[in-house]
Specification:
The protein has 186 residues and is mostly helical. The protein has helices at residues 8-16, 36-49, 56-65, 70-83, 90-113, 117-129, 138-143, 149-161, 177-185; strands at 53-54, 86-87, 165-167, 172-174. It has 2 domains: 36-103; 114-185, Winged helix-like DNA-binding domain superfamily/Winged helix DNA-binding domain (Arc Repressor Mutant, subunit A, Orthogonal Bundle), CATH 1.10.10.10. The protein is built from 9 helices and 4 strands; from the N terminus they run ααβααβααααββα. It is globular, with a radius of gyration of 19 Å.
Length: 186
């Protein structure tokens, strides 16, 4: 049997928590992002099939911006494929991002409506930074005029539980890259 999911902390809770029924019943195997070159060749063929092209530089830009996250790259490529035949400029990528973010803006507004002021301030600060190693550190708190370290910790816990942010080995990031882009506008 294979279990898969992109929300690593939930998968960890299910299989590595002694309170859960699947505790230590599986072998864990993490998947890294697809190799950029292989992904590019795959995507390029679709554009060529419609008598167009996808620049390798533009694809590299998309891959880097979205850190190899398949879901986000797929959304971008889908939008570019729908609207463009020849994708050769990063401005086309910027326009596709704007479209996706604007299309989701009502969802994002509803989402932040469920957050406390403290939670919203913390997630906005993380979005602006991109990756935050020490969100409870005094420098980060001062820079973004956040409340006390304990209040930030409470916000981090709630935001993590709601899958709005997650913690990597390097620090905290906003789970949805497009939501992070939207938050930077606020």
């Amino acid at each position: 049997m294979i279990f898969s999911g992109s929300k690593r902390h939930l998968m960890s809770q299910i299989f590595y928590s002694p309170e859960r029924p699947f505790y230590q019943s599986t072998v864990s195997m993490g998947l890294n992002p697809l190799h950029e070159e292989i992904y590019y060749d795959f995507a390029r063929r679709f554009f060529e099939d419609k008598k167009g092209n996808l620049s390798q530089d533009v694809f590299h830009n998309v891959y880097q911006r979205f850190e190899g996250v398949t879901r986000n790259i797929q959304l971008m490529l889908n939008r570019l494929y729908e609207t463009e035949r020849h994708v050769t400029k990063t401005e086309q990528v910027d326009e596709a991002i704007r479209h996706i973010v604007n299309r989701n803006s009502m969802q994002y507004e509803e989402l932040i409506g469920f957050l406390t002021d403290n939670q919203l301030a913390v997630v906005k600060a993380i979005a602006k930074e991109g990756l935050v190693e020490s969100p409870q550190g005094s420098d980060f708190i001062k820079q973004y005029d956040l409340p006390s370290s304990s209040s930030v910790k409470t916000a981090l816990d709630v935001l993590t539980d709601k899958d709005i942010i997650y913690r990597t080995s390097a620090g905290y990031i906003v789970y949805d890259h497009f939501f992070a882009i939207w938050l930077k506008r606020l």
